Amino acid sequence: MEAIRVSITPLKVIDFHTHHVPPNWELTTLATFAPSQRARWERINRRLADPLALLESIDDGDIAARVINVPTALFSRSGEVLADDVFRRVNDQVAKLVSLHPGKLHGIASVDAFRGEAGAAELTRAVRDLRLRGVFVESESNGRLLDAPEARPTLAAAAAFGIPVFAHPVNPQGFTQQMARYGQLGTLFARGTSNAASLIALLEGGVFEALPSVRVVFTNLAIGGLLLAHSFAARGVLPDGAEALLRKHVYIDTMGFDPVLIRAAVDIVGVTHVLAGSDWPIVSDGPIGEKLLHALTAAGFAEADQRQIAGDNARALLGI
């Protein structure tokens, strides 16, 4: 058997999963999460609002670039419906920040996918006028998942422009509170259910068939939905072609850098559909290049596959 060749040089990592909130927005996370997590979120808040912090790992040579998004959930109240102007201002700020650091920072727009045509209109403005390279949306809103009719215009616009949709987890009401007593793991599990649920909804709700060019990135928290879809498609529970739809439309980031989960994601959606992503600064706030290299090596990936996951896939997906 031919030996697997692993990378002996640092990977050129593009961190697809990076959060930022411009400092003029007042964060609400301290009121959202459990008191036991207060000290942790105070530190995270400082990092989120510091644009220079985004560049530290790039300037240190740990990673090559970041793809930044602004989750409006970090500065809004639970259930609050934000005005359209909020998203315009956020996207303007992302575009300005990216323009100051070309090649180091790449921006994706934030829109409310459940706002119907208004979401699609802001996505269109952000791509045409601001040159943002993707769109960040929440996986769930008031019980609606991304197969909801209200979300279809935004998804259709993303497909038409050829940009990826980053479907991000949210805190599902009730379940998040139930799991918060179990610390960070419980909160992540609750959030992962929203991400996995929208993956299943898009697959079973006919969205991928209706929008043959749409591409959706899910976090590694959605692994439960991905594994179930793969397992039951093989058993004939899902419609014919479900596995092919997963490999065509679904991308997964490496959040957590677990070789078992990364290997599983690659086995299901293919090596070209897995992206380096850290969930900075919430889950990972520090050097990630070596962690990623060790995880990919432990998972048995050859050097060419490591390079794809580390950065080449993100470049292809975003048109960098």
Short description:
It is built from 14 helices and 11 strands. By secondary structure, the chain is an alpha/beta fold. A hairpin with a 2-residue loop joins strand 6 (140-141) and strand 7.
Write the layout of secondary structure elements.
Layout (H helix, E strand, L loop, with lengths): L13 E6 L9 H4 L5 H11 L4 H7 L5 E5 L14 H17 L4 E3 L1 E2 L6 H12 L6 E4 L1 E2 L2 E2 L6 H10 L3 E4 L6 H6 L2 H22 L2 H4 L5 E3 L4 H12 L7 H8 E4 L5 H11 L4 E2 L13 H10 L4 H16 L2
Parallel strand pairs: 1-2, 2-3, 4-5, 5-8, 8-9, 9-10, 10-11
Antiparallel strand pairs: 6-7
Helix pairs in contact: 4-5, 5-6, 8-10, 10-12, 12-13
Please provide a written account of the structure.
The longest helix has 22 residues. With 320 residues, the protein is α/β, with parallel strands linked by helices. Helix 4 runs parallel beside helix 5, helix 5 runs parallel beside helix 6 and helix 10 packs across helix 12. The chain has a single domain, classed as TIM Barrel (Alpha-Beta Barrel), CATH 3.20.20. Helix 5 links the parallel strand 4 and strand 5.
